[in-house]
Each structure stands twice: as C-alpha cells, then as structure tokens.
Amino acid sequence: KEPFVELATFIKEEVIPAMVENGTAAVDLADQFIKLRDAQRDLNLEQATSRAEIQELKRQSDDFNLSIEERISAAQRAAAQEEELRQKRQGLIESEISLLRQEQEIQGESEERTNRINELQIEQQAIIEEGLGLQTELMTKTQGLERELEDARIAFTQAQKDRETGLASFRATLLGDQESIRKAAQDKSCRT
Predict the structure, then answer these.
(1) Is the pTM of this model over 0.70?
(2) Among 2, 46, 52, 124, which is least packed, fewest CB within 10 Å?
C-alpha cells in the first residue's frame, strides 16, 4: 500500500504542479503569439500606408523645383520613416524568435520551430543589410544635395563678385567718359 501512497504523493506534489506550470506557460505563450500576430498585422498596415508617403518624400527629394534645403529635409524624413519601419520589423522578428525559443523550452525542439528560427534569423540579417543600404542611400543623397547647395553658394558668390567688378568697371568707364566730355566741353569753350 505504501508504494501507491508514495506514487500518489509524488504525482500530487511534483507532477501535477509541473503540468499546471507548463500548461500556464503554454497558455501565456499562446497569448503572446496572438499579440505578436496582431502587432505584425498592424505593422503590415502601417507599412502599406507609409510606402506612399515615403515615395512622395523621395520624389520631393529629387524635385528641382524645391529648394535644396527642402529636398534634403524630404530625403531625411523619408529615410527616418523607412528606418522606423525597419526597426519595428526587426523588433517583431526578435520577439518571434524569443517566443519560439520559449516554446522549445516548454514543448521541446522540433524541426519546424528550428527551421522557423533559422528563417527568421536570415530575415533579420536581410533587415540589417537593408538598414545599412538605407543609411548609405541617405548619406549619398544628402551629400549630393549639400554639394549642390555649396556649388550654388559658390556660383552665387562668384556672380556677386563679377557683378561688383562689372559695376566698378562701368563706373570707371562712366567717370572716364564724363571726364572726357568735360575736357571736350572745356576745349570747345576755350576755342570760342
């Protein structure tokens, strides 16, 4: 009779609490997966609505009818929005990887979960590369526009100098002509 009592006590004190704990953890994990899917759906919607705005900002950054400062600002805003979306995607991937690892701890490893984690890690690396590409694109665009702005400033400064030189030359010519006219008038009055 004692081995059955010991077994019943073991089941009551060890097995049942462990099952309840694992069951509770599994339910909590399922809730977290649901929240993750909701967040992914929200991000997909946000990305869809932001893409048009980002493309408009990129168009503005190339619009020669806008000032260079406006074009730089548009490029920076587009890059900032893209970076924000990229970071959110990366955060969701990190969350999913973490949840899958927790699920493995509770339910054990499976080929399906391991493959999904590997896929997510590959996607995560692609997102990191995308971020580097965005930074390079913004830096190149901004440097090009800043160079354009500096070239415009130099051209304006040179045009101002040329204008001043031209005005000085014109004044000198005008003063010389006035002096010549005055001498001619004096010569004429002296002769008469």
Answers:
(1) no
(2) 2
